[in-house]
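fyi for ur records
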Amino acid sequence: MKITIIGLLIPFLGTAFGSAMVFFMKREMNDSLQRVLLGFAAGVMIAASVWSLLIPAMDISENLGRLAFLPALIGFILGVVFLFFLDKITPHLHAMAQNPEGPKYSVNKISRTMMLVFAVTLHNIPEGMAVGVVFASFLAGGSAVSSAGALALALGIAIQNFPEGAIISMPLRSEGNSKTKSFFYGTLSGAVEPVAALITILLTSFILPFLPYFLAFAAGAMVYVVIEELIPEATREEKTDVCTIGFAAGFALMMVLDVALGA
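which gave:
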């Protein structure tokens, strides 16, 4: 149980530490640094989706033989579709970053700030679900996920959350908010993750029969966030070099963590 509690808190701490960068950096984050951090976060999420979610989903379904991929495929598609419709009713992060004063976000500074936090918070829910599903499998004694593997996913998401926290708090500071307020809102965006993870664990009895689907669902949702939000923001104006480097570093690190700790 102690491992589970630590695992649920690790991603949230990643967001909090990232948001705390507002106390140590200038009012605006260097553009190249922001791009490499977004690329890094994208690499971590893609690697986590493959090694921590999709592969375990297919391992659990190995009794289906050649159709072992089917639950993972169905869950993955449902995750993508879910985030697709979620994006239709919430603001896009890259659109807000590029046009914070635009008509859709021009009510006042507080509303723009709250919409940014709201959008990021909603996109953090699938990550919390992913952690919860993995730890639910571990607590149920499933052989597909070890405690080390579950912690590797939590650590990987925390690493991804670090730049995300900074990317949220720094623009809020540049809008004229105080450092403390910017830190608070940045941290608040990550608070939903342990909550979503805990709810998922509490629903373990319902989730376990459909565990491969839920694992793949979380993967589909995370991949959608990468393609729809992180990559467009990191590669805007066709500046892709530092994003590519960051992506490769994040992917490699998460792959190593998952395989080494999950073995």
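Confidence is low (pLDDT under 50) at residues 96-111. thats all i got for now
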